[in-house]
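quick q for whoever's on today - can somebody do inverse folding on this one?? i tried earlier but teh output was garbage lol. tokens:
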């Protein structure tokens, strides 16, 4: 459910102006904006010079309109430069911060883009996993050596001996290793 059927719009900003809002209509793929898919669009505009930001979003219409956007790469045919705008966030009224449009700045050419993407993935993973570390939760890990559970309690205590009769741990154990 990371793709969208909503109408997607983009505005590209450069040192000489902007494109205004443009709907992305004709992809080189038959179905646009599917999960894991790269779509390619031709956008005609005057030459904007060096690009520095984009605003991309959708109109929020249609079933399952939420969209997870990885990144946007714009190739300037005049200079043959690629401009990368990293997102790695939801454009969805029911996810993340509920925004359906994002302002993205160009990836700094002096920074290794892979490092920035890695940092965004780390933040994305933490956002998905941080619920486990909320106040009051006890984390349990199965220790294959002792065949018991290591429990990290909310009061910061650790039970490293492991309770072999812990019913929640047993369910976890059976679910993973069955």
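ok took a stab at it. sequence:
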């Amino acid at each position: 459910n990371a793709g969208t059927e909503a109408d997607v719009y983009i505005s590209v900003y450069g040192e000489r102006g902007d494109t205004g809002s443009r709907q992305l209509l004709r992809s080189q793929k038959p179905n646009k904006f599917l999960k894991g898919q790269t779509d390619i669009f031709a956008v005609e505009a005057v030459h904007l010079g060096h690009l520095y930001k984009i605003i991309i979003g959708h109109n929020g219409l249609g079933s399952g309109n939420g969209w997870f956007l990885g990144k946007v790469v714009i190739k300037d045919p005049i200079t043959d430069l690629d401009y990368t705008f990293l997102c790695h966030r939801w454009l969805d009224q029911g996810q993340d911060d509920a925004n359906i449009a994002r302002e993205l700045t160009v990836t700094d050419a002096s920074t290794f883009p892979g490092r920035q993407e890695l940092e965004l993935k780390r933040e994305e993973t933490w956002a998905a996993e941080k619920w486990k570390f909320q106040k009051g939760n006890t984390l349990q890990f199965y220790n294959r050596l002792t065949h018991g559970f290591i429990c990290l309690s909310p009061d910061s205590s650790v039970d490293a001996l492991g309770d072999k009769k812990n019913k929640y741990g047993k369910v976890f154990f059976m679910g993973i290793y069955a």
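fwiw The chain has two domains: 8-115, 134-177. also The radius of gyration is 23 Å. so keep that in mind when u check it
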